[in-house]
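Subject: Interface between my chains keeps coming out wrong

I've been trying for a while to get a sensible model of this assembly. When I model each chain on its own everything looks fine, but I need the whole thing in one frame so I can look at the contacts. Pasting all components below, labels as-is. Any help appreciated, I'm running out of ideas.
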Amino acid sequence: MSDTYDLTIIGAGPGGYVAAVRAAQLGLRVALVEKDAPGGTCLHWGCIPSKHLIHQAESFRTLALMEAAGVGVDRTGFDYAKVQRASRKVVDTLTGGVNSLLRRNDVTYVEGRARLTGRRRVEVEGGPVIDSNNIIIATGSRPMQLSGFMIDERHVLSSDGVLAMTELPDSMLILGAGAIGCEFAFVLNSFGVRVTLVEAMAGILPGEDRDVCAVLERAFTRDGVELVCGMRASGAQRGDDAVSVTLVGEDEERAVTVDRVLVAIGRTPVTDGLGLEEVGVRLDAKGYVETGDFGETDVPGIYAIGDITKSPALAHVASREGQIAVEHIAGRGPEPRRVNADQVPSAVYCEPQVAGFGLREDRALALGIAVKKSVFDYAGAGKTIAIGKSEGLVKLLCDPDTNELLGAQAVGHDATEIIHELLLAKHGELLAEDVASMIHAHPTVSEAVMEAARGVFDRPIHA
Amino acid sequence: MPTDFTMPKLAMAMNEGTITEWLVADGDVIEKGQAILTVETEKVAYDLEAPESGAIRILVMAGETVPVDTCIAVIAATADELQAIDPEAGPDPATRAAANEHPLIAPAAEYADRVRASPLARKIAAQRGVDLTAVTGSGPGGRIVKRDVVDAQPGAAAGSVWTAVDTSLTELGRIPVPGTPRAGIARRMMASLQSTAQLSSFWESDISELIRAREVMRERAGAAVSVNAFIIRAMSAAIADVPIANSALADDEIVVYESVNVGIAVALPGKTKWDSALLVPVLRNVQSMAVAEIDAGMKDLVRRAREGLLTADETTGSTITMSSTAGIAPPGTRATPVLNMPNAVIVGPSTPQDKLVPIKGEAAVRTMLPVSMTFDHRVLDGEPAARFSRALHEYLENPALILV
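Reply #2:
Try treating it as a single job with all components included. I did that and got this:
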């Protein structure tokens, strides 16, 4: 492997492997280095296995519906280990898919730990030295540690540990009510685990709209998840098979004893030990790589994408950034230069689901941006009543002069799917009246989107 | 199989064409090579020939403007085959013709069809009074999106609607813009400044020798050769030394041309007594021409530009442009003409002036020509640009090198 590659990518997550395939499509000679298996956190310890568990949790819940119809349900044989094993099988299937994708596109796949030893050189531990005209760093992130809560994956777990867990504890305390915390709260609660969800900020999902979060908070509380907001964990005492956690609020302190603790306070970039700073790549105090247009770092020819940059740590952002960097390297047109933050969808997959993009109402208020707001309740779309999923809403914020879509949020059944109609409208610069005047099939959940759009400039029919 | 006949792209800058007249009727049997319609672009009108023989079905009526590549007619091998074509497949010529009899409503519909813009861009344009036909789209497939409208300064570009007119002021008159050559000029100038990376350099060349050579030629041949003919000859010689100056950025590639086709900016009178117009006829294959030949070709083009007799070929296909800025800048000073897209270089000679110049320590009166050169930095960098301007300077100062 002495000859020079056009592009070497370090990290085969959704940022790196998508970039590698795109680069190969554009005719570049590309090498992809990965220390584990291709697919990254998303495929192995994130989105994919957790979506399987969520799906299983939803199925488990619907047993109650069958019971209501008179079906006798015997839950005694329930074995969580089988559920967990099935989630790993999904991971294996998709890993095989990524592998064959890389093979079909003639990407040179190199297994091992990579390190930059020059501005155009990557050394793989116990492997080859790769000379490359361009390098993309796509090493992703790992769970963030919380002081006093050293992760042992036995009593104190990270999200990796929960996904590897083959036995359900009786009780679990989740520190951090972001997307990861909320999704695991939903899964564990559905399978009968007593869940305490702790968030230091005033409410769950601090990045999302308050009206939207209120719907999810109501659902959690109804289902028996204990929500503790505005308190942080100050320390833990580990017993043989229990952990005692001290929670501190503004004028309150209490101790909670649980079987397990999940630390889900965020993720931190993996940029150490790669030799980045030695070749001149600039990192900020938290270890994020400083990037400019196309994800290029201070060193021309070295790019960074995904969770190691300051853009939202989402698989779909990493994939898009990878494509932007590769198209620039391949000499494609000057646009786009970076991901448009207003058009990045967020998605939380518990039931009800939460999704959104663009401007939020609290930010509009804080920044003094004038908006026209329209909120439509899921219950107004007949389909949601028919399928027993009527909790939810669609919320639109529009420019008062033009009805340009500035932001949209949805909470409820299939919210992560229906948001894309609004995102396409935003992307294609369609207006609220375009969405409202488009015929939507009846009965669908998407009718709630149409009605919310109508509410921007007129009155919805079913409200 | 019937063949589609589409609006051809006759110049790199041509995006749309207006059908001024069909020279054949719908259903006529036509011969290959026969002139079948007249099309008008921003610059000139010209006749299009039938690509093959057969029976023709006209899809777009005279008077309509359509983008390049739009199917405007279908040619079937025989009249029978033409009958077999589903009349629903294309717009019914009869209805379209009828629609055109109501010119009061036709333009609005046509406007909506012709401009590709997002709904948001249309709304903002309507609110701010921006004429979308004068806006260059930067969205997917060249679609006009919000940023294009926001960036288009209403009132700054000709082509914008007169929304900000203060009617309390006494007016001399008004000059219509949409559909006139002014709209095309405005669009091309804006597109050039917004989508290229223009950089200019300036110098003075001593053309005393060149003026003397010109005098000698006048005495011998009896005809005055224009200084501009010498400048074009010098540009052609400099291109031979630095070919990248004679190139264009097209899509993903820089095309470096062997043919030296020099665009020559010609000022023309406008529609009213206040305005003006501008044409850039093209003198082709200058690389093989001597000064006298260039002079004759140039004068013929300029004369016919003024008389409105140019053909399509004569206003398209330039690879470099010369635009004399004499008149814009007083003698001895210069101005920078706007790059004539898709050329990478434009040379702007100004008015020469006699100056006292030290030569070997003695003051001498020399005729100095101020020159500006503007180039597209996307295509060439300072180094080749400097070599080109230096070569041009050498040839202007030493006309013996180009009198071959």
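Reply #3:
Confirming on my end. Chain A is about 35% helix and 25% strand.
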